[in-house]
Amino acid sequence: GRGDACTTHCPTCPPDTPPETPRFQCMDCMIPDLFCQDFCVHAHSRNPLDGIERWDATKFKRTSLKDMGLRVQLGHRHGEVCEMSITAHKKFLVIYTNGIHNVAVDFCGCVDESIVGLRRQQLLRRLWYPATHEEPQTCTTFRALELFHVMTLQGKVTTYDFYTGLEKLTTKSGLVKVKDWYKAFMRTMRQWRHLVMLKRGGRGNDGDHLVAETKPGELAVVCPACPQPGVNLPANWETASGEERFLYILYIAIDTCFRLKRRLVSSEKKDPGFGTGWSYFTEDPPFQKYLLSVTDQKEMSTCISLAALDYANTKFSRGYGSTGVGLGVCARHEFVQRNGAADLQRGERNEIRLDLILKLVTFVIPKLHIYGHKLLCQLNFSLNFTPRATRTDGEGIECPWANIGPVATSTREMGPGSRHDTLDDHWGHWNWEKLTGLGALLKKCMLCAIPERNFQRGSLATFTENQAEHVGEWMTMVQVFEADNTRPNPYELPKSGATESDLRLKFVQEEAADEAGGRLPIHNVSPSVFVIAGLDLEEQGHRIKVAVAAHKGESSKHSVSIIEKCTKLSRYLARFRKVQAVYIPGALQALADVPVVQGVGTLVENILLFLPSALSRELRASGCNTISI
Ligand SMILES: [Zn+2]
Ligand SMILES: [Zn+2]
Ligand SMILES: [Zn+2]
Ligand SMILES: [Zn+2]
């Protein structure tokens, strides 16, 4: 309600003015009272976009300063009225952070246009951005554009949601329809993004080269920590000794994201990018030319982990102008590289070709992803085995993907140019965030790395000492391999013969053959199942021993869990012994020979199983039965 506001006279008017019930309040100004219409209009000559409400006997109702008689004079000092003023369109509209406003605007029509400026300039000088440049009828304030820009970069708010939100702020109930200026807002925002990027790149008014002469990648925020000759490298970096060369390695992680598709809407002709190629996306014309030169390719790789690439070639790509984005980031600091993003195309043109001097490039697979690859990939492309790779994990690309993911739904429906501009803008923000956080992050990493490095060095020294007789030979193997990776890989485990499942298969086949030949097993548990059960028991015993040692003197929780495991093992053991009596009577004999240690009260994990391998040669020969004759 009206609260304690005065009902008889306007507290802001001089005492000699005729009494009038003050009925207006401003939602944006901090004025404690209600006031009269004249004062309200006068007080808002500098704030023509404030939200005003009028008391209509029972409730406050939204009204507008335009309806109350406020006019905005452009091109003159505050309070001046232009004698030659030109009235703007009667439905002139301004989009502001608190809603959408109808405003009565007067342009200055004074003679010298070079002084007063064009209409769009008159608006821009009041920080109102016109949606069209000839006869502006709609504007968005710089504040509203800034607000949306931050909201979309930080929270991935879409243009549609933001604009609809402003409509709701304007009409509250949503029952009154505001004329739809969404397209105008969208267009303005796109220009704004572009201009802000140019401004931040120091382009536009540098008096040096025109905006159109912006060079590829010039607007990208680049990583200050990665090596850049002429920027942060010493003059003699190319001749640095082997020990120091790791300082000058650039780690680039390349990955593709199939969520960042684009439907086949609009075209490059209808919707060209404002600055495609100036920051993160590759330049359009050279990239299109390159795509035409790439021949169809079906066989991507024999490694199943690369099946994702084949996914792009399936029917799921139908109806899409682009099937995703390929991106390169610096793997250690996660900066999107300048011109490091490219559209994946329909069909088979997804090869990422690196026209590089291959001798200088080492290919590796990130440390987590590598476990999804086959063994050969794990051996040949491991960062752990790459000389001077330090402790890089190469997984840095996943973070920018996670950040850009929420944008995918809206960019999917955009034309090619809007999509490029939008994604470039988000990556610019991502890189900026990385840049401002880099100092603190690197310090944190270093403080973490020093004690770890010391610990690992200590372990290596101890190991080297204990294995002194092998170290020389091992070192040579590693050095030979590092110098020439076609030589035997010392990290490759030698083939250790048949696996457990190979042997199981062999035994089962033998047993089947025996039964087919009429030789039946002497127990309904077959010999192979019995042996496997024995091995299993042995392993469980070891596990309990390890657990007991690890949790010595700890809480009762661990003791309970260990006792439970022991009880279970005892039960298995009892069943095992019954079958053992049939297959290995010799074991019972051996068991009888063992002193009291194996009697009642022996911890279950210490009990000797006497599997055939644990028996003496003679006992094994005489004390094992397999099949009935
Ligand atoms: Zn008054
Ligand atoms: Zn106000
Ligand atoms: Zn004028
Ligand atoms: Zn970097």
From TrEMBL:
Annotated CxC2-like cysteine cluster KDZ transposase-associated domain residues: 65-173
Protein name, per record: CxC2-like cysteine cluster KDZ transposase-associated domain-containing protein
Pfam families xrefs: CxC2 (PF18803), KDZ (PF18758)
